[in-house]
Amino acid sequence: MLQIPTDLVQRISREQAWHYQIVPMAFSANSISFYHSNNVEADDLSSELSIIFGLPVCLEVIDADVLKKTLVRYYPQDNLKTKNQVQSYSGAYDDFLPRVISEAKGIGASDIHIEIYEEMARIRFRIDGKMVERYRISSEEYPALINKIKIQANLDIAEKRLPQDGRIFFRSNVGEFDIRVSSLPTMNGEKIVMRLLSKDAGQIQLSHLGFSDEQLELYTRSVKRPNGIVLISGPTGSGKTTTLYATLQLLNSDETNILTIEDPIEYTLEGVNQVQLKEDIGLTFSSALKTFLRQDPDIIMLGEIRDKETAQMAIRAALTGHLVFSTIHTNSAWGTISRLVDMGVPPYLLASTINLSMAQRLVRLLCPKCKKQEPISPSLFPPAFVMPSDLEFHSVAVGCEQCYYTGFSGRKAIYELIPMEAEVSQSIRDNKMDVQEIKSLEQLKFLKEAAWELFATQQTAIEEVFAYFI
Questions:
Q1: Positive or negative CA dihedral for 341, 346, 347, 350?
Q2: Fewer CB within a 10 Å sphere, N or C end of the chain?
Q3: What pLDDT, in 10s, does the model give residues 87-121?
C-alpha cells in the first residue's frame, strides 16, 4: 500500500478519488500527477482531470489491488454509503465542516480534534481509541473554521482567551446526533474538540458490552438491590458512561423515579430525568445531589465522584434508602475503596453502603476478516512472565478493506468486579487494604485475567494487552 502525506491526500475529495479511481502522487504549480490503475483509459482520464484542475495531468499506472487498498486507507467510505454511490463535490468552504463531521460519524470516530500549530493546522479523528490524521488546512483558513464551529455551538467568538463548552445538534444523511464542543486556547490559537454523541441509548444492552456470564450475573444482582452504591472506575474513554446508561436502561420502568446529573448528557433516555452539570452557576454534583434527595428518587446516577463532599453526599443517599450509581477515576476496583477512604469517608460506612466496585477498560479487537495466526514466542511477553495457560498460537493484525487497513475493528470492554461480601466488608471495616489477603477474592477475574482471555482466544493482539502483563 502507498504512503501518501496528509497535505497531498486532501488535494482531492473522497468522491473524486473513488469516482475516477485515482490517488494523488505529486502537485506543483505547473502540473498534477496521479496514480491510477490500467482499468481506465488513460487519455480520456487525463483530459477530464486537466479540465477539472486546470493544469496538465500526468498519470502513473499501479496495480489495481494496491490502488484499492490506498483508496480504502486514505479515502474511507462511511458505512451508510454504497461503494458505487457518487456524491456531488463542492469546493465551497461552507461544505467542508458538514463533510468532515459526516465522514467522522460514518467511519465510527468518537472525537474530532481541530488543532493549530505555527505553520499549519490539522484535523484528526479518534477511531477505536487511536488518533488518525485526516485533513490539513492552511493557517489562514483556520480562524474562519473555528468561528463557524463556535457560532453553531452558541459560543462567544470574541472570547479567545478562556476555554468554552457548547453543543451542536447535527442533522445529515448519516443521521441526527449531538456534538459536544470544547474550545481550548493554545499558544498558536484555539483548539477545538468535538465529541460525537448518540441521541438514543435504547440499543445499549448490558449483555453486549463484554461481561462474562458470571460477571453479568453478579453485576445484575448488585444493581437490582433496592439501595446502596455501585461504583465504576477507569480512565477517561474506558466506557464507564456506556455501562451506566445500559444499567439505567435495564432498571428504567414506570415504577421507578430515576434522576441523573451528568457532564455532559451523552445519551437521551426516555423516562429518566437528566440534568446537565453547570458549575459556573453553582449546579455541581454535590449541590444537585442535595436537591435530588428532595425529589423522591428511587435511583440516582452521578456522573462522577470528584471530591469529598460529593462522596459523602452519595453515601448519605445510599444510607437513606436510595440506589446510587457513579464513576470514579482509579486504576482498579479495589483502588476505588482506598480512594474513598483517602477522601475522608469512614471505612465502616463504605462497608455498609457499597454493593459493588467495578473497574473496566476497552481493548481493541482484531479484524475477523484479516487477522493472521502465528506461533507463540516467549519474546512476546515481559521478562519472567508466566503464561496462565499453554498456548501454541496467537493472532496478529494484518489490515484489509473491512478495517480500513488498520488490522482492528471495534473494541470490547474487560471488567474487574468486587462484590461486598462478608469477608470483603469486614476487611474494609478493619481498614485492611491488601487485596491479596482476602481469600474470597481469589477466584475473581481481575483485569489481567480478562485481558489474557481476550489474547488467548485470539480476539486481540499482544500489543493491546501487553501493559496488563507487566
A1: negative
A2: C
A3: 333 334 467 888 899 889 888 899 999 999 988 89
